[in-house]
């Protein structure tokens, strides 16, 4: 198969274990099988907030997270929006291919607007899925490993590609989303895992910080530990987390803990997570910020060559 993989993240803060099991582990595998692009989606940061914030720090942090988990810059091209003008230029013709009504129907965008703390909804909020189509199509990406919330954006990308091909001739392949089969990992309070909610274990967290977070995790008073997603979601989530780190079944772990209660459960989870993160932390400690910046600059250069080629094809097809 000659698939091209493209995926990416907004540089808004450190990646956590939810990212790892939800997508990073899969990327580390995919980079051996396909050409892969990993996007630091820096221009997308300003879709749901007014200012990019500590953008350089977050970009460097994201690079270190990628490298620490084993994304290999010799195999994968890691790059950023803001370094690739030709990618961004694709947005102009692409925007002409979708209607305002279609943009307004995107369920992920609707949800983000509903949860936004911004005073006003910007034009970028409605159009960033088309920008995301440019992310995927500039490198003729065909496989997009993403979570469920990103499926509408992959649909927009397919729509853009299909309409472009219909109007101007065959230029783009139609990409497919690739969904992970891993169980959903919740935060330590049972809600959606998110750094801003303080319920996530960052990949860059130290051993003591990790232990403290797990100590505070919500459980219940039943001493007999069982795996019951509906009645005991917080306990089940901790068992899932330990299971992912150990490569074992959560139910088997529950049986081993038996009447040990929350204390035994938490000490098992802490050890499992810290053992799991140890090699990732060690790799991170070997890297400097200047390594991260150099690797990004090299990836940007490669991605830009590809973007220049695609933009030229697009302009030719359109008769510009
Ligand atoms: N929207 C994605 C997120 O919030 C990040 C992203 C930007 C992306 N461009 C992409 C993901 C292209 C996949 C493909 O996580």
Q: Which blocks of ≥5 consecutive residues have pLDDT under 50?
A: none
The third-level CATH topology of the largest domain is Rossmann fold
Placed side by side, the strands forming the largest sheet appear as 1-2-3
| Classification by helices and strands | mainly alpha
Largest sheet composition? 3 strands, parallel
- Any idea what the CATH architecture of the largest domain is? 3-Layer(aba) Sandwich
Report the strand count: 5
Average predicted confidence as pLDDT: 96
Tell me the strand percentage band. Answer: 5-15%
**Number of helical segments with 4 or more residues:** 13
Please trace the helix and strand order, writing H or E for each element: EHEHEHHHHHEHEHHHHH
How many structural domains?
2
CATH top level label of the largest domain: Alpha Beta
The geometry reads as globular
Write out the distinct hetero groups bound to the structure: tryptophan
Going by CATH, the homologous superfamily of the largest domain would be HUPs
Please estimate the helix content. 40-55%
Could you please describe the fold and organization of this structure?
With 320 residues, this protein is mainly alpha-helical. The protein has 13 helices and five strands. It has two domains: 5-182 and 289-318, Rossmann fold (3-Layer(aba) Sandwich); 207-284, Tyrosyl-Transfer RNA Synthetase. The strands form two sheets. Strands 1-2-3 form a three-stranded parallel β-sheet. Strands 4-5 form a two-stranded parallel ribbon. Strand 1 (5-9), helix 1 and strand 2 (36-40) form a beta-alpha-beta unit. Helix 10 (233-246) packs across helix 11 (250-257). The model has no long low-confidence stretch (mean pLDDT 96). The site of tryptophan has 14 residues, from strand 1 and helix 7.
């Amino acid at each position: 198969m000659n698939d091209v993989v493209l995926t990416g993240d907004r540089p808004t803060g450190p990646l956590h274990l939810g990212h790892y099991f939800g997508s990073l582990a899969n990327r580390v595998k995919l980079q051996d099988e396909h050409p892969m692009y990993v996007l630091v989606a820096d221009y997308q940061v300003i879709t749901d907030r007014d200012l990019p914030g500590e953008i350089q720090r977050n970009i460097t942090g994201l690079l270190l997270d990628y490298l620490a988990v084993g994304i290999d810059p010799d195999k994968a091209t890691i790059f950023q929006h803001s370094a690739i003008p030709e990618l961004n230029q694709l947005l102009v013709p692409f925007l002409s291919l979708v209607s305002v009504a279609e943009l307004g129907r995107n369920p992920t965008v609707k949800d983000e607007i509903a949860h936004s703390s911004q005073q006003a909804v910007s034009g970028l909020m409605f159009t960033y899925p088309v920008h995301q189509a440019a992310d995927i199509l500039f490198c003729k990406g065909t496989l997009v490993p993403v979570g469920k919330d990103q499926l509408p954006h992959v649909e927009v990308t397919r729509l853009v590609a299909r309409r472009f091909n219909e109007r101007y001739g065959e230029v783009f392949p139609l990409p497919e989303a690739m969904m992970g089969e891993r169980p959903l990992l919740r935060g330590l309070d049972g809600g959606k895992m998110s750094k801003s909610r303080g319920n996530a274990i960052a990949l860059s967290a130290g051993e003591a910080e990790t232990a403290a977070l797990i100590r505070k995790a919500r459980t219940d008073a039943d001493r007999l530990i069982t795996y019951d997603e509906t009645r005991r979601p917080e306990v089940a989530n901790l068992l899932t987390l330990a299971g992912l780190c150990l490569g074992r079944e959560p139910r088997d772990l529950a049986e081993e803990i038996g009447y040990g209660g929350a204390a035994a459960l938490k000490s098992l989870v802490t050890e499992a997570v810290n053992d799991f993160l140890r090699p990732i932390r060690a790799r991170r400690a070997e890297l400097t910020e200047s390594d991260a910046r150099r690797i990004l600059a090299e990836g940007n250069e490669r991605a830009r060559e590809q973007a220049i080629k695609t933009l030229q094809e697009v302009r030719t097809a359109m008769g510009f």
